[in-house]
Input
Amino acid sequence: MDKYRSLHGLPELAGVTTFAGAAGSGIGVQECVDRLKCFHYVLQRTWQVLLTRIACEPIYELKMGYSYHAHLIAEHITLLRDRVAELRHPPLRLNRVPDQNLQVLFDEIRNAPDCVMLMEGLYRVALPALSESIKEYTEETNPLTDAPSLRLLRIILPELEDMIAWGEASCKALEEAAPDQHEDLLEWRSELKGWLAAAGGVAATCDPAAAPNPRYSSQEFVYDSTPKRDERFPDPYNMGVHAEEFLHDPSFESRDKVFMMFFKRLREIDVPEMMASILYETVTGKGEAEGSKRPWGFYRDMTRQLWDEARHAMMGEVGFVRSGINWPSTVRVNYTWSKGLNQQLTPRERHAVLWFIEQGLMSKKGKRFEWELGTDSGDSFSELIQDFDWADEVLHARIGREWYVKDFETTEAAAEYGNACWDKVVSEWEQWKEEGLTEHHNWWPDLYREVCRNRGDEPDPRVVAYDRSYAETRADLQKIDSGG
Ligand SMILES: [Fe+2]
Ligand SMILES: [Fe+2]
Ligand SMILES: [Fe+2]
Output
């Protein structure tokens, strides 16, 4: 082999590897498939654990991080599924649990009582172990025979490392925020590592050790789809400012309206809260009739949309921050929509409402209008985010056509069902007020005055006086559309 030369000294083997690399050993197809399926299992369980927390985790930053990671992992799952399907004929048995102890590891993490313990498990045990196991695979497989697997693992690995780094930084920040909250965190970590060791590692490449004692996994897991928020959302039932009516009132100026649009974007955190419940309850077969399980493409597309909605919320946050607006002190972002849908509708009905709202955004008064408003305002950031918000929404309409509308004979029937489902959701505007859950305080004048202070403008009394609530309307464009 030492004497062999490529012509003119050109790079050998298409640049994939060297002769020494390709002529070395490797692992066979069955072993590759077995290990890739273990990676798939770990990602599948991680994806599900994240879904269980997107609604009920109060801390906004964690909610956003979980939404992002759920999306990345859904993409990784897709790559691995496709690769396994290239290597083996069906049935691929991708839903089979590769090892009981690996299953317990994730049951322990899923059942962890708080976010610190959950994150310790995911980001300091499970995902680092996955990363190690993938690296081991990349070193042991033959770079020529198994080049397609190596290619996709090269896509997965850096994103996995980024997720672990985010998790590590988040764990540290949570520890610093509440230093004495968890005295036995190290013990917890070593227990979880014990489950991994009992499985012989992520891909069962080591001799299995004895299993530790279960801590939380023996209790049945109860999924909590009730949205929760942190202290920057002190008035989550507030329906006191009708954003759409303000935006569609031609007598107000675009440069003021962009702040109402930032609010609308930030309010989109309720969409991941709601979509996570659709996904989790559908994939686990809870809350739905038999036979409602969906092909993986449904979960992948819907998780992508979930992430887009989280991104839209963060765009709104950035909009406020770059304008010097301290949004938590003025704006009241509610969770009435996600709470109502999660508690009152089945996953399919929630999906129907989501699609019904989103197809309405494709009208001239929807996303195009918001983009034109951004353009007209002179605020280049608003223009930019509305441009992408619109593009994302077009994608979501397509996802809706694929995974919702196709179940109906006509688009009209799909819309009718969506509308009827939304009508079923009871908004207890008055009752929340009577129960003291909210005053439906009109926070708009405070926000507007802060905007004017930053601009050095005198507030316009007409804009200060804007006082329309959601008392009689749903938060969509239905009323505005029919009223022209
Ligand atoms: Fe959205
Ligand atoms: Fe959006
Ligand atoms: Fe959307």
